Amino acid sequence: MAVVSLRVNGATHEVDVDPSTPLLYVLRNDLGLRGPRFGCGLAQCGACTVIVDGVATRSCIMPTSAVTGAITTLEGLARDGTLHPLQQAWIDEQVPQCGYCQNGQIMTAKALLDRNPNPTDAEIREGMEGALCRCMTYYRIQAAIKRVVRGAAAAAGAGNRAEEVAG
Amino acid sequence: MSTSLQLPRAVEDALRAVNPSLSRRSFLRSSGALVLSVSFGAAPGGRALAQAVQAGPYPDPDFLQLDTWIVIHPDNTATFFVGKTDGGQGTGTAFRQMMCDELDIAYEKTSLVMGSTDVTPDQGGSGGSDAIERDGWPMRRVAAEARRVLLELASERLGASVAGLAVRDGTIGIVADPSKSVTYAELVGGKRFDVTLTGRNVDATTGEAAVKPVQDLRIVGQSVPRYDIPAKVDGSLTWAVDMKVPGMLHARNVRPPVAGATLRSVDESSVASLPGFVRVVRSGNYLAVVCEREEQAIAAARQLKAEWTPPAEAPFPPSTELFDYIRRAVPTSSGEPRVTGDTQAALAAAARVVEAEYEVPFQGHTAIGPAHALADPSDGQMTIYSNDMKSYGLRNGVARFLGMPRDRVRVVYMDGPQVYGRTAADDVGFEAAFLANELERPVRVQWMRNEETAWDTKGPPYVFKLRGGLDAEGNLTALEYDARAVDFNHLGYNEPDTVLIAQLMGRRRERPAAGSAATPSIKYGIPNQRLTGHVVALPLVWETPLRTGNLRDPNGPQVTFAFEGFIDELAAAARKDPAQFRLGLIEASAEDDVFRKARSRSVVRAALDKYGWDERPSPKPRSAATIATGRGIAYTYRSNTVVAVIAEVEVNRETGGVWVKRFVCAHDCGLAINPTGLSHTVECGMLHGLSRALWEEVQFDAEKVTSVDWASHPSLRHSDTPETIDVVLVNGDPNPDRPDLPHYGAGETSHKPVIAAVANAVYDATGVRLRRAPFRKERVLAALRAAQS
Prior knowledge:
The complex is a heterodimer of chains A (167) and B (789).
Chain A: E1 2-8, E2 11-17, H1 23-30, E3 49-52, E4 55-58, E5 70-72, H2 85-92, H3 102-115, H4 121-128, H5 138-166
Parallel strand pairs in A: 1-5
Antiparallel strand pairs in A: 1-2, 3-4, 3-5
Chain B: H1 2-18, E1 28-29, E2 36-37, H2 46-55, H3 66-69, E3 70-72, E4 78-82, H4 91-103, E5 110-114, H5 131-158, E6 165-168, E7 171-174, E8 177-183, H6 184-188, H7 229-233, E9 249-253, E10 262-267, E11 277-283, E12 286-291, H8 294-303, E13 305-309, H9 322-328, E14 333-334, E15 338-340, H10 343-349, E16 352-360, E17 363-364, E18 372-376, E19 382-386, H11 391-402, E20 409-413, H12 427-439, E21 443-446, H13 449-455, E22 458-459, E23 462-470, E24 476-486, H14 500-505, E25 528-536, H15 556-573, H16 578-587, H17 595-611, E26 627-638, E27 641-652, E28 658-668, H18 675-694, E29 724-729, H19 754-766, H20 777-788
Parallel strand pairs in B: 4-5, 9-21, 19-20, 24-25, 28-29
Antiparallel strand pairs in B: 1-2, 3-4, 6-7, 7-8, 9-12, 10-13, 11-12, 14-25, 15-25, 16-23, 17-22, 18-19, 18-21, 23-24, 26-27, 27-28
């Protein structure tokens, strides 16, 4: 066992664990987080996804000691009590069936849009390919991502127009 | 003090997890002699009461007491208690809508508690897509009864006749004098109704009140957003997988490396020095390791040295030889043939006879989250936190398994990964309870991915032989259907002598369940039919990873693939448009010339209209393009729900890849409680069917399952998703004005015809008939090449 320092959702935590422990178990069992979940332990399904320094990371195989960056989990997406646009889109599109995989879907989509705010349909499929859903909500997930992309484009368009008027 | 508070808090957390909208405000538990509050902080004495609730015993909530179902709170809100579970299809929201409508209270002012054995009446949990169709009725009736009782109380309070009263959102007023009114809370808030209901069983539960006519329902029919979704996307929900109690341990199972192996010895010293090690538990061939921390249990289970003796005889043939095995096997049982007319004579007289064989392999549940449960043996009780869809059955089964009185065991139902029949036999709930009992401490168990994919329950594989006769005009005159399914020892629901741990411990029932090989419930007019089903067994019957159980519409996708695929072959042989061929068979049906026929006709036509179907026989004229396109239709009933699915496919002739570009589904399940929720369930049911059509197959060698993770057992992915999915809710009825338009089930119907629709579309595109699921690209490519040579 060793004391490991983790920065999660803006707060620093020190946990006394075997440093090889996959990050997932520390997040869930030591820090009490409920977003990332065990799906395969093989980095194949995405249910455990967290974002480390902007990169969607499979926490089920990531040794805790190997994580040096800032970790964001599903719980850390909301800002000042306002849901992240992806979370809101997930509600607006009524995406989940059981919902068990949706942590991975949302976190993967977050990393995708942070990388590429205006993906094509093909880029959405490709970017989301590794996130599995066994209730098969894929069509709804893709609709929710497109909703966020459209919303961001509309907001940007409105902003541009406002600037033009101001100019 | 803090310890004594932990467990009640956990109970409350669990209940809030079941329903995020349930706040910490006091809510009333209605099954005891007194109104008890588990919100221990709110009221004096609440803490003691909470402990009393926790400590048990846990008698069954009496379904004949109105207070069991509905509690009106002092703030004029209500909580409903129902004995159902929601696997993610939004049934909880639908139940609330139905009960709100009958009670006349705003949806936002209510909450719902589901499926926890000590606080909700036993409605059996979920299964068979009967939540809305069957269990919704007692909910509606008890809510209507509560409204009736409240009107009577208001009549007394306001000094006006019931006929002169009107209810609006939990407030009853005098129609002639709107200044006089009384709220539900003022009448019974925080108190009991003390009204006894009648009914032979929970399904028949009723009061004196009649339910509202359909035309008066206001909340039913609205697409109310699902209440459980926000907490599922912001990470705040406590799922069964998250449940923790003080002092809990973590366990992992160690499965036999070879099916049917006998555990000869266990070397505990191989793990005893590992950090956090607590104990190895062994009983017969059941083996588990228990540790303080989860990752420790995982490591220890991997490291534990055990010696197993393989069985003398191979447990099963390899999956590559499964269908040959099924064809050769002597059936363990054969159903009585369902016979209409004289099929032999009709086939002999036919102008054309078509024959075909279809094959479907074992397909698994392979839930995204492996099985898990937490069992807490505190206070001489056994509490299991579980996502078991049939939580009452788990309670009963565990009580028998452990030899505990039933009222000392309870199951707190919480959200979990998809169920579709998997948790109807909740192996892990029994394992957690067994280990907690052994260790006298709370134990949480979760299966690993390879364990789940290899050892979960599976849908039975089938071989079908079909013959059909057409007359000179291309009319179907005879159909012979012969099915063989590997389904001997089909797993029951939470039985203490069939769940996996019981099998491994040698606690088995004497006579395995016979199983079944289903025949199609044909709604077509076919004058001569002979339908037969045979069950066959694999050599290893017990302790096998190839256990059949109920997988979403347990036999429907297999049977419908064969039957609706073969109907398509007959249409093609008759050079008729496959949809018109089906409509002709529907019109020819003598079974029911009004209700079923009218609904079938409407659904098929609605699908054709939405798709923009052009009438022509399949296949399409051959083109030289690499990407061949085509469309296929399949139609079926499940229980009282009727569905038609059209798939439009692109087939890559060079790779064999099949992509369903578009799905259209026309669906009639009677009254739609929540159209958006229904539509999404229908959509996801189709895509689950598509996953089974394109990808899913359990593979095994002669001693173990070899498809054990998402690489070796592929599932549908984002890239397989259709570009367009259209769901048309027909929800028709020959008489739309009837006041009792029933609500039928929708959890499985759209799943059922998808394999057939895809195969029929591939035939339309390429002229190649796929008769062996799934349609992985190497198999499709081989079929395309075979057709060319």
